[in-house]
Amino acid sequence: xxxxxxxxxxxxxxxxxxxxxxxxxxxxxxxxxxxxxxxxxxxxxxxxxxxxxxxxxxxxxxxxxxxxxxxxxxxxxxxxxxxxxxxxxxxxxxxxxxxxxxxxxxxxxxxxxxxxxxxxxxxxxxxxxxxxxxxxxxxxxxxxxxxxxxxxxxxxxxxxxxxxxxxxxxxxxxxxxxxxxxxxxxxxxxxxxxxxxxxxxxxxxxxxxxxxxxxxxxxxxxxxxxxxxxxxxxxxxxxxxxxxxxxx
Length: 248
Prior knowledge:
This protein is of the alpha/beta class. The protein has a domain at about 105-245: Glutaredoxin. The chain has eight helices and eight strands, in the order ααααββββαβαβαββα. The strands form two sheets. The chain has a six-stranded mixed β-sheet. The longest helix is centred in the N-terminal third of the chain and has 24 residues, at about 50-70.
């Protein structure tokens, strides 16, 4: 007895003179890749959106594994990232931060103010008391790789524009000891406030990624521009010249 394609019922081997199947192959060929074809048929039955969602889920698990194995620790390998910091990493990867785009954006809106304890020293960092010159407010935390990358540029431009521009840093959701070590490492001597809870960064200014740098009017009442992501020294020099006419 043979099947409809001429193969013997017992072994799946085509009988003599059997005609090829509809796809031009003999029945033996079809039987030979039955395993692979079965897998393809299973995948073909999965809705495409569900398949894409599965791939995205696998990617996020991979990112979480990387974070858990190294990214979530300081250079000393002792301090894990906070949940908020991990959330920001996922938001940035997924492009769901909801804030300004990466890079520089010119804006014009009312600027908030703040008073914070210092990272180093005892004098509070009061933004309202630092007005009179163009204000640059940089949000960062010590285990943030882009913050580490941009810190030398910010320190260099702050030194070059001393007396013409006031730089202020806000370290948030961080340890004070880690923040102090960061400032020493990168030579940042301008005022830096310690926002341990992240309230000023996330609620008052509503930042959506780190680092973020705001450019305020000399009276501190208007936001004139915002840089999301690490800034380079040439970019920062250009922004200061464009917004304030200040040359570094």
